[in-house]
Amino acid sequence: MNVRWSLAGLAAWVVFLSCAPPSASSVPVPAAAPATPPATVMAPHRPTADAYDLVQASPRVYVFVARETRSPIVSGNSTAIVGDDSVMVVDTGQFPALARRMVAELRRLTSKPVRVVVTTHWHNDHVFGNAVYRDAFASTGAVRFVAHEDTKRLLLKNGPKQVAAYRTKIAPFVASLKEQLSGGKTEDGGAMPDQERRDLEEKIADGEAAIPLWKDVELVTPTETFKDELVVPLGGCDVKVLHLGRGNTAGDAMVYVPGDKVLVTGDVVVWPTPFAIGSYPREWRAVLAKVAAIDAVTLVPGHGPVQRDRAYLRDLDALLAAVDAQVAVAAKDGRPLADVRKVVDLGPLGRKLTGGDPYRAGVLHDYFEVPAVGRAFEEAHGTLSDE
Ligand SMILES: [Zn+2]
Known about the structure:
Layout: E1 52-56, E2 61-66, E3 78-82, E4 87-90, H1 96-109, E5 114-118, H2 130-136, E6 144-148, H3 149-168, H4 170-183, H5 194-210, E7 224-226, E8 229-233, E9 238-242, E10 254-257, E11 262-270, H6 281-292, E12 298-303, H7 311-330, H8 337-343, H9 347-354, H10 358-381
Parallel strand pairs: 4-5, 5-6, 6-7, 11-12
Antiparallel strand pairs: 1-2, 2-3, 3-4, 8-9, 9-10, 10-11
C-alpha cells in the first residue's frame, strides 16, 4: 500500500496567511474535540431534507453537518466562517428550506452578514441553497458567489439539467419505490428481507420530504471565479480559497482558515465512502498529497462528521491507489473495461470503510468502485471525458 502523507513536500505552493482567532469572550470555544467517528456509527433516521447537526469546529468555524442516510437523496455539509466584519459560507446544501433554517441559526450566532458564498464544486447537493443567501443578505450588499472557473463552466453546462431533473424525476422514482414496498418482493422476486424493507422505507421518507422542497430551487451561478487561489478577508481573518488540482471534479475548491487550522475540503473527502462519479482518480491522489501538507488540525469533509485526524484521508488515498494500480495492470494489452472490472478487488479496504454494513457496501460499489474504475480506465488510456 503506497500511502503518501509525508510533510516533506511542504512546498511553496501555498503561503499561509495569519488569521488570528477571536477573543474567547466573543465566541465560545468548542467542547473537547471528538475523534473521527468509527465507521459503524449511524444517527437515528430523519429525512435528509429535515435534519442536520450544528457543530462548532473551531472558534470561528461552524458546520451544519448533513446526516448520513440510507437514501440517494443527500445534502452536503454547509460551513460558516465568522470573521470580525462578515461571514463566509462554504456550500449551501441541497434544500433551500434547510438553508433558510441555517440562515436563522447563523443570525442567532452572529450579527455579521454573509458576504461571500464559496461553492466547492458544481453538484446540486452543494449549490441549491445559494439563492437563499443571495436574498437573505441582499440588504447588506450583494453577496459574492465564488467558485473555481471550471465549477462555473460545469454549473452553466449541467446546472439547468440538474434543477429540471430534481423537479420532475424524483416523484416518479418515489412512486416506484412505494410500489416495490407494497409488493414486498426484491427485484429478483424473493421475499424482501427486513433490512431491505427498512432501507426502502427510509428512501421513501426522504423522497417524500424532499419533493416539495425542490419546487422553489433557483440556480445561482458564481459571480466570481478563481484559478489557483483567492484570499478573502473577513476582518481579522484572511481565508484562502484553494484549487489543489482535479479530484472529485475538475473545479474542486477547498477553503483554509489558517488561524483556526481548519480545512473545508468539499467532496474531495466524503465520509464514510467516497463519491467518484465524474472524478479524476489519479489526480485526486495528488490533491490528497497536497492536503497532507496543509497545517490543519480539523477537516470538514463534503459529507460526514468533522474530522480531527488524518485516518480517513489515509484510507481514501489507499483506496484510490488500489484502483489506480489494479486498473493500470488490468488495462494492459488492450483488455476491455468489462474485463478490467472483473479483476478489481477493493477487498479489506472497502470492508474497513463500510464496517461490513451492506448498505454502505452498496454505496461504495455504486458511487465509488464502478465510476472510479471507469474513470481510471479512461485515465490509463488518455481518454478521460468531461463531467
Ligand atoms: Zn456532495
